[in-house]
Amino acid sequence: MTDKYAKPVLNIDHYAVVGNPIAHSKSPLIHSAFAKQTNQEMSYERILAPLDSFEATIKELVAQGYKGVNVTVPFKFKAFNLCDMFTERAQAAGAVNTLTFKDGRISGDNTDGAGLVRDMTHNLKHILHNKRTLLLGAGGAAEGVLHPLLACELDGLVIANRTIEKAERMISRQVGALNQLSASTYADLNNPFDIIINATSAGLTDTELPIPNMVFAKDCLAYDMMYGRETPFMTQARANGAQVADGLGMLVEQAAEAFYIWRGVRPDTKPVIEMMRAL
Ligand code: NDP
């Protein structure tokens, strides 16, 4: 055992978020608020894992008696390979964001999709059933939300990505849902959509996605998974009359789902979303 991480204190369950970089992560604030609200004795901290030793970091946390961790960029795929067992949605995504350590075994789940769907349906009051849906991006975040989105019985789902081969690969793995799915480049998009989800990281560099204005149908919900800034996608959607949402609600909802897996208690997310918006 090393001194690299906080020494576990007896009688308190320890959790963490592991990523690289990690200093920006808001997960400790969210989980602390959940713990206070539900009277749970636990700690939750940020842990920076070196890019080349994620596995060793997790093994050390297990040895120290941690009960579980959230996993963020860029380790969600590596975390999947460490698991002894998975939920169906994690298996479908091939990536995990929630690890639970119990009886010497690691179980993996992916709560990103459940968080997104809950934010859109419960908080933003949108019905997803029968909606023409466009998913922008084919990275880890897009993979994580695909299976839960398909379970909502949409009216088709188009995945558009700069590198179209990645969108095609994602689709080829969804054998049970091939008739609902198609891949596209941005330039080839030529239909309106009721729901558009931006799962790219283009907003990080203020890069505009080359999508035509006509993709925003009347009453479209344009959802950007990024939070804390107005992205060019959000600006374009607003200019085309769409209802626009950022990913803060998803962030809190995916955390609530992880908290429920670990603690068996479902926190009330509304006050926590309000608290995070006010920061
Ligand atoms: P990845 O690095 O795995 O994927 C990035 C995606 O963005 C790829 O599809 C990539 O396209 C695309 N992309 C990146 N730059 C550009 C660009 N300049 N123009 C067009 N496309 C671009 O990242 P993640 O999938 O893990 O994360 C994506 C976003 O989702 C991040 O901003 C992250 O913060 C957010 N997120 C939010 C969550 C929340 O709870 N709100 C949860 C998880 C993620 P290509 O394949 O062609 O390279």
Task: Walk me through what this model shows.
This protein is an alpha/beta fold and 279 residues long. The chain folds into 2 domains: 2-109 and 250-278, Rossmann fold (3-Layer(aba) Sandwich); 113-246, Rossmann fold. 35% of the residues lie in helices and 22% in strands. The protein binds NADPH dihydro-nicotinamide-adenine-dinucleotide phosphate (NDP).
Write the layout of secondary structure elements.
Elements: E1 13-19, H1 27-37, E2 42-48, H2 54-63, E3 68-71, H3 76-82, E4 85-86, H4 88-93, E5 98-102, E6 105-109, H5 112-123, E7 133-136, H6 140-150, E8 157-160, H7 164-172, E9 181-184, E10 193-198, E11 216-224, H8 232-239, E12 243-245, H9 248-263, H10 270-278
Parallel strand pairs: 1-2, 1-3, 4-6, 7-8, 7-10, 8-9, 10-11, 11-12
Antiparallel strand pairs: 3-5, 5-6
Helix pairs in contact: 1-9, 5-6, 5-9
The structure holds NADPH dihydro-nicotinamide-adenine-dinucleotide phosphate.
Residues 73, 112, 115, 137-142, 161-163, 166, 199-202, 204, 207, 209, 225-227, 247, 250-251, 254 line the site of NADPH dihydro-nicotinamide-adenine-dinucleotide phosphate (NDP).
What keyword list fits this structure?
279 residues; alpha/beta; Rossmann fold; six-stranded parallel beta sheet; binds NADPH dihydro-nicotinamide-adenine-dinucleotide phosphate; 12 strands; six-stranded mixed beta sheet; globular; 35% helix
CATH hierarchy: architecture of the largest domain = 3-Layer(aba) Sandwich
Listing every helix as H and every strand as E from the N terminus to the C terminus, the arrangement reads EHEHEHEHEEHEHEHEEEHEHH
Overall shape: it is: globular
Class based on secondary structure composition and strand pairing: alpha/beta
Q: Estimate the strand proportion.
A: 15-25%
Tally of helical segments: 10
The unique ligands bound to this protein are: NADPH dihydro-nicotinamide-adenine-dinucleotide phosphate
Q: Using DSSP, what is the number of strands?
A: 12
Residue ranges: pLDDT <50 for 5 or more in a row? none
CATH superfamily of the largest domain: Leucine Dehydrogenase, chain A, domain 1
Q: What does the largest sheet look like?
A: 6 strands, mixed
Any idea of the CATH class of the largest domain? Alpha Beta
Q: Radius of gyration, rounded?
A: 19 Å
Number of domains: 2
- Distance from N terminus to C terminus (CA atoms, Å) equals 36 Å
CATH topology of the largest domain, what is it called? Rossmann fold
Helix amount, in percent?
Answer: 25-40%
As laid out across the biggest beta sheet, the strand order is: 2-1-3-5-6-4
> How confident is the prediction overall: mean pLDDT?
94
